[in-house]
Amino acid sequence: MGGARDAGWVAAGLVLGAGACFCIYLLTRGPRRGGRRLRPSRSAEDLTNGSYDDVLTTEQLQKLLYLLESTEDPVITEKALVTLGNNAAFSANQAIIRELGGIPIVGNKINNPNYSIKEKALNALNNLSVNVENQIKIKIYINQVCEDVFSGPLNSAVQLAGLRLLTNMTVTNDHQHMLNSYISDFFQVLLTGNGNTKVQVLKLLVNLSENPAMTKGLLSAQVDSSFLSLYDGHVAKEILLRVLTLFHNINNCLKMDGQLATQAPFPKGSLFFLLYGEECAQKMKALAYHHDVEVKEKVVTVIPKF
Questions:
Q1: Could you tell me the CATH number of the domain that includes residue 251?
Q2: Which of 115, 140, 165 is the last residue of a domain?
Q3: Taken in order 185, 188, 192, 193, is the CA torsion positive or negative?
Q4: What's the chain's Rg over C-alpha atoms?
Q5: How much is the pLDDT for 304?
Q6: Residue pLDDT, tens place only, 157-183
Q7: Contact 295, 241 (CB under 8 A)
Q8: Rounded to an integer, what is the distance from CA 182 to the centroid of its chain?
Q9: Which of 60, 32, 30 is nearest to 45 (CA)?
Q10: Sign of CA pseudo-dihedral 122, 22, 47, 116
Q11: CA distance 23 to 32
């Protein structure tokens, strides 16, 4: 299934993440006064005040980008990023912001030592990444975002924002290869993070597992044996279903490539040895009797591969 996936499907999948981020902002603002509206012309700093959920015109977006590029005030920078990020949740503005040269202006802010500014910049890039053309410009930040995810505080807002952006950037196969050298690190974050972090890392890994070109990198990754604890029956359903989907996708990719997992040369301590070992086989058999119907149905798609 190599190559870019259907563009329509991509947009539908990606917009969920952007919409969720946008809705969080709306909820924190409380009830809106009236419907969405276009603002009249205002000064650049005025655009960062008031109702952040208003839709800005092209002229106002240009003013906002100029302000974001020129100010050194952290408060104004953060407000500008929030406003810009909310406007980037609308598909028309995603293209406009790109055409105005806004992506590098926002992207440069992820270098900011202020963690709140870094988070808001990542959130804005996340919404902008819903647009496939924008991803071409955003991909230059992938390595830095990965480094921030692994070096920053575990379970922090910055780490989650970075993971959300990387998840959006891996919905298609186009840029997944850029994460090859980080796969073991993602598994480490998966195993040490809290529930929210685990879910977000698994969303990313599931994206990678759908691409046969990434199968070898996934199975070669050095993964701690505690990974198998995620296949226990008491694990939260949203996590358990995703680790089962990860396994199911890897099996499918091996089948599509005409490979037998048992014949593939992978190093000891790798994901391959965990997934295709006796301990995991026993866990799959136990999960076949899980109380949840969805879990049992997903297990059935994995067990025949043993």
A1: 1.25.10
A2: 140
A3: positive
A4: 21
A5: 67
A6: 999 999 999 999 999 999 999 999 999
A7: yes
A8: 14
A9: 60
A10: negative
A11: 12
